[in-house]
Amino acid sequence: MKVAVAGCCHGALDKMYETLELLQRRHNVRLDLLLCCGDFQAVRNEADLRCMAVPAKYRHMQTFYRYYSGEKKAPVLTVFIGGNHEASNHLQELPYGGWVAPNIYYLGYAGVVRFRGVRIGGISGIFKSHDYRKGHFECPPYNQQTIRSAYHVRNIEVFKLKQLKRPIDIFMSHDWPRSIYHYGNKKQLLKMKSFFRQEVESNTLGSPAASELLQHLKPTYWFSAHLHVKFAAFMQHETNSKEELPKATKFLALDKCLPHRDFLQIIDVEHDPNAGDSLEYDAEWIAVLKATNSLVNVTQSTWNMPEKNGLHAKWDYSVTEEAIKEVLEELNHDLKIPCNFTLTAACYDPNKPQKNMEPVHTINPQTTEFCAQFGLTDINDRIQQAKEEGSGRGECEEEEEEEMDSTGSAEEPSEYNTDNSGLSSFNPDEIMLDEEGGDEDLSTCSVDPSPDHPPEFSTSFSDIRIMPDSMAVSSDDAMDSNNEELEKSGGSKQVEEKSPTERSLKRIGGDENGNSGVKKIKRRNYAIYAAEDEDK
After folding, report:
1. pLDDT score recorded for residue 510
2. Could you tell me the residue ranges of all domains in the chain?
3. Where is the composition biased (Basic and acidic residues) (predicted)?
């Protein structure tokens, strides 16, 4: 079957689907599925905009609301994960996944589903070590800490995914697995993004949690986004025994959604021709959720997952074939995910803007139904209970969050720089979308096509590329680039070694005339991995 993969669409759904339609007509193919690797921006209204960790000037409504309201419908089944530019209050309603609009499915904090026999998994958010061991305690209205920590990857999601034993066909993460750049054309990557050099050489670029999952799951395909650059790699995994067959992962990072850019990839994936056309639950994943339900935590305290170290009575939460069989029997062997999308918030009306609309903590009926069906804890209901009981767990008060942020990193020294900027209006997670190399400002994606202004498509759109051929990496490509070719990145390397305040100024400033003595580094990719509160 034909599967399209997109990077950060930043809410520009109209443009993304129009591009898909164009490619289908141009190449005479029919797409079966669209996968999006985060920064989807499922913004329904003005309150959702307030829950996005971006400066006010980037808070554009975009076009998702048209699909949420029913004005439009996604022309192809779309499955996505969350990134670090999301309406976190909306996605938080669906911690186990669910429909955000008809034909558009969110995988949740972490999830696995099946489509035509193809097993698709993913993990939402980006990695940040000093939030990694906390529970999902955040709830709207967010403050300037929780609006970011809400989308940080947590150890419980990684732990759940590591209980899986059956093969995964496709996996998605927003940020890249750490070290993956060593398996592709690193020379070309550093030519395009010279300011990655120090982190690539020190092997600190990317998410260690994602890297851990890559080594454990060994999926056939792994797709990421986040850095707004296209990059392919091929990773041959080590076998654990002589009997185990060799496995390899084809990795691809996608660029962001912009006209005239190669932001889509289409692949041919082997599927079960006898399987139906509906999105389905994955029985093993449901069994793992049930097995790990007792580990659900909604507190701010850091905590460790069970491991074989003599401190835990149980550390293996992988499931037996019998447990999987029980799930199948519970569902009468009907794994079809119900199309139970429900409106849970008012939809944006361009004729009646509600600029003062405030976000509220909502319990989504889809999550209530899912938890009741499988005997799981509704995380949002647990947070609400904690708030009502005044126990301090799951509180969203600013003072407690400030204390949490200052103590969290002390217990577990971060592998990355940590943010001490407090409640600064400067968001260290922000990715500026006007970087060098012709990238356009995000606001250019907010113009909605209309009958008077039809969308323009350039013939510069790349041809459809069928993997794995498109992802082949030669040994020459994979070699480290030489120092001469990378010398020009030295100025940005010095920026990384400055103090937090100096780094922030360096990234956006220059001399008094607005000029810089070195190549200007715009905060689009660099900020994520060099700022203290950077989210990977």
Report:
1. 39
2. 2-391
3. 386-395, 485-510
